[in-house]
Amino acid sequence: MPPERPPIDVLRESYPDIRVAEASLIDAGPVVTGGGVSLCIDTTLHILARVAGEDVANEAARILEYTRARRANSVDFPPVVVRGA
Asked: Does residue 17 fall inside a structural domain?
């Protein structure tokens, strides 16, 4: 049995007209999407920061005991923010 293909490769091949980027999240203005199960927390905190401010997002991360992971993810796998999208 051949090895499983990465989903991002399948996405690229299936939809060649769509820009596919490897990032923790993509913020294109009205569309925000995150990759991976645990990165949904980072995506939610990003949206929370946009809507309610960075202080609120930081407090939510603290309550979730996610501050260290959030910081590490932002350095190791930074978000892509597309301005003017």
From this structure: no
pTM: 0.75
Say if 63 falls within a structural domain. yes
Asked whether residue 38 is assigned to any structural domain, the reply reads yes
- Read off φ and ψ for residue 32, nearest 5 degrees: -125, 130
CA dist 83 and 34 (Å) reads 17
What sign results for the dihedral spanned by CA atoms 30, 16, 73, 38?
positive
| Total number of domains constituting the chain | 1
pLDDT by position in tens, the chain (length 85): 888 998 889 999 999 998 888 888 889 888 898 877 778 899 999 999 999 999 999 999 999 999 999 888 888 887 777 765 5
Task: Please name the residues in contact with 26: beta carbons below 8 A apart, sequence gap of 6 or more.
Answer: 32, 33, 34, 79, 80, 82
